[in-house]
Amino acid sequence: MAEVLVGGCKCGLVRFKGTRLKAPMFRCHCRDCQQLTGSGHAEMVPLATVDFSISEACKTYEMSGGSGQSTFSGFCPECGSQLTRRSERMSDRIYVHASSLDDPGKYDPEKSIYAGSAQPWDKAAIIGEP
After folding, report:
1. pTM for the whole thing?
2. Residue 111 contacts residue 26 (beta carbons within 8 Å)
3. Strand-strand pairing, 59-64 and 4-8
4. Where on the phi/psi map is residue 114: left (φ > 0), alpha (ψ -120 to 50), or beta?
5. Does an H or E element contain 122, and which?
6. Shortest CA distance to 36 belongs to which of 100, 90, 120, 101?
7. Which of 15, 23, 89, 110 supports an S-S bond with 8, CB 3.0-4.6 Å?
């Protein structure tokens, strides 16, 4: 049976619900994730877009991804919590930030992506690299 995950922002204005996609959970060390989170990386959980729902209050910031296609970052306009990431390139999925899950203990990262962009002070967080 498909796992349904729910979560939201710090202040509770924005809530989401979706089905866990059969794709790896991961840490992203790209520069966009660093800047958006104010951290060395983002912890991401893939959900299927087909049944994903999120409060209308969620705001979206559009930017150009590494592929040249648009990527979108969803956040709460009230408390600023980062909630989602999605891209035109992989339209079947939306990634939610693990810390935004009601039960963040369900997060189990399998790998790091864009490890080459990791900051020197964040290298210990890389998964799957020698």
Report:
1. 0.92
2. yes
3. unpaired
4. left
5. none
6. 100
7. 15
Residues 6 or more apart whose Cβ sits within 8 Å of residue 41: 27, 28, 29, 33, 34, 112, 118, 122, 125
CB 55 within 8 A of CB 14: yes
Residue 37 Cα distances to 68, 93, 94, 119, angstroms = 21, 20, 17, 14
- Which two tokens mark 56? 């209308």
**Structure tokens given for 75:** 């956040």
- Work out whether strand 15-19 and strand 4-8 pair parallel, antiparallel, or are unpaired: antiparallel
Contacts of 125 (CB under 8 A, 6+ apart): 27, 29, 40, 41, 112, 118
Residues in the chain, total? 130
pLDDT digits (tens, 9 = 90+) for 81-112: 999 999 988 889 999 999 999 999 999 999 99
